[in-house]
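Before relying on records like the one below, remember that each one covers exactly one chain. Contacts with other chains, cofactors or solvent are not represented anywhere in the record.
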Amino acid sequence: MATDINKQSEKSRLLMILLFAVTGAVVFGFSLLYEKSIEEIQRNTIVALMGAGILIYMIQDGSRNQTFSYDNGKHIPRFVFICIVCLVVASVLPLISYAAWPYLVIFVILGLFSNLQIGFFTGTVLLMISVMLEKNGEYGEFFMYFMAGSIALILFRNLDEDMKVGLPLLISLLMQGVLLMAYYVLFENVTFSVAMFAVPALNMLISMILLLILINVFSRSVIRHGTDMYMEVNDPEFVLLVQLKEKDKEEYYRAIHTAYLAERIAMALGVDHRAVKTCAYYHRIGHITGDHSWNMVEKYCREYHFPDDAQELLREYFNHKSGEVSVQTAIVMICETIVASIMYIYQKEPGTKLNYDELIDKIFQRKTDAGEFRDSSMTIAQLNQIRALLKKEKLYYDFLH
């Protein structure tokens, strides 16, 4: 395990060095290509290297504090690749009219594949590089695309499975069109006419097409990819659950009932119900081989490509005695105990009539006395809410006979 961590750390270090070196080399090379003066070459290269250094710090800080959006923290090389591609694009843009620059798209793509702060900073640095590499770069161009890109980044920062992009797309494009026309009037002294709408309209059209392509790619590679994986492993007929059913039907139905309760409670509390359901399904999957260790469960997770969040939750469940657990893990632990207790009582005393409220209160009291909730990040309010929700499931408990 230590060896794997060291290898991962070494790969990350080499990746950051590559990003730093490529940034400096690309900006230095294009500055020479555009026949900039010695002073301008020095300025451009230093600014680019400073930006790369700050970006590297932000990436490492985001990885350490897990502040990346979506699953981006698990795919740093993907973001570095996107950064380098955008850097090359930013360096080529001075060859065309500033009115056709697709910075609306650049800001959004950088933000979606990292987080709001990193996307904002990286887009700003690249925009600065484009302006500095221009023959006669103006601060007005920087201000215009800075505002348009910032607005678009904020509007698109929280894409989800519903993919409601119509309004953000409309507002972003309109703002860029307004800014372009305002720049023409205020700084280019262009006479107001129908012709002045041509370039902004073309830019808006190109940006719209690129944004729609980007959103489609992002949806398939990030958002829906995780959803599809959850749909597969959370299917009661998934291969591992079928194997568990063939091995021990009682364990299979225990997992099914635990997953049902845990998912409902997680949804009511507003936490990741898909990862909770996966953890509830597979927290005893080691029963297939008789090996209930995390190492065995981890092998299953890797072999069947479990979503990263679900793997982290399962790892926390198996290692919960070594530290504080999340609300999600606590939900699984509570539901598991409730289901196991009711099934055991019905198996031992068939036909008995249980007072579910009393049983739930006793289980919560026992766990409280044992200090289990003390090692959880749950609040007292959440704990009471879970207790109340479990008591509402009385009709479902009759299925545990």
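The chain has 17 helices and no strands.
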